[in-house]
Amino acid sequence: xxxxxxxxxxxxxxxxxxxxxxxxxxxxxxxxxxxxxxxxxxxxxxxxxxxxxxxxxxxxxxxxxxxxxxxxxxxxxxxxxxxxxxxxxxxxxxxxxxxxxxxxxxxxxxxxxxxxxxxxxxxxxxxxxxxxxxxxxxxxxxxxxxxxxxxxxxxxxxxxxxxxxxxxxxxxxxxxxxxxxxxxxxxxxxxxxxxxxxxxxxxxxxxxxxxxxxxxxxxxxxxxxxxxxxxxxxxxxxxxxxxxxxxxxxxxxxxxxxxxxxxxxxxxxxxxxxxxxxxxxxxxxxxxxxxxxxxxxxxxxxxxxxxxxxxxxxxxxxxxxxxxxxxxxxxxxxxxxxxxxxxxxxxxxxxxxxxxxxxxxxxxxxxxxxxxxxxxxxxxxxxxxxxxxxxxxxxxxxxxxxxxxxxx
Length: 408
Description:
Residues 1-6 have low confidence and may be disordered. The protein is an alpha/beta fold. 50% of the residues lie in helices and 18% in strands. It is elongated. Helix 3 packs parallel to helix 4. It is built from 15 helices and 16 strands. A 6-stranded parallel β-sheet has the order 8-5-3-2-1-11, sandwiched between helices. Strands 12-13-14-16-15 form a 5-stranded mixed β-barrel. Strands 4-6-7 form a 3-stranded mixed β-sheet. It starts with a helix and ends with a strand.
């Protein structure tokens, strides 16, 4: 049994589900090199992606081209897609398979960060067409589809992709796919996958965490937590936990910003919005500062990531939740501040006026005697005759003496 296991073919199965980002590129590149070092028989990449960053895509493609082990990109599961950057990754593979109900295409480049003019966008598009065509020529696929996918954003269903020569076969499951690839040739080798042992290697904790940080919604939430934490620490020094949480969140947010097309005008608007709402607590502006803060936060959130593709933008739901929670938080804080201003003082000289106590001895009108008020003995001056044991109320504090009268 041990000998048969050693002699059986090894298929390394990798999984991509989501946008192509630097952490995903690092994961695929590392595992492709590892599979080559182990001399696996096939690398199977199951892919469901809306696209991603150009640099990350090119990193993966270079590793595919350099691989001695045949690579199969499988658009899976059913209902998945291989769009934009995913098309290039599939084009560089030795085999392309698709599950029923999947599609491939729509690889037109989009501008990120600074707005590209028409000339620059045309250059980028031409470069992408030439790059995809060269990959198709290398793998023996029709190069005319490079023009259609990139320049005209064509997208093909699984069966149509096979008919067009962009994909090699349709398979309902990875097991069916391996059976269909058994006996096929790639790189001068014939695949023997009848009793292949599949080694599934998903993204580890580190890769998954970094990929999560590349999510624009997570980056946005980390930025807000960081700002709130630091503001709370500055407003209430010594809390420690809010300050530490805020600092860590901001550092993670800045890491995320390195992976995403950030518009720093949006960042400044968000910071300004939080600052204005904080100023509303300190300054009486009759809601002007607070309203400006909410609008600034809203516009900054919308502008934060300067890109036209949905998977690299903050969802409207996330923006709405953050803005509403921020508004409710500051309304609560402002309400507490206003109530605190209206409260009658309860400590010091001001707090003693109006307090009730008890006479410890008889006191004549205009005379002085001992009373017990607010847990302390006081020398009191009476404005009327007071008998020992009578309840008294403080009218005025005069240095170390108080003026009292009977409780009506």
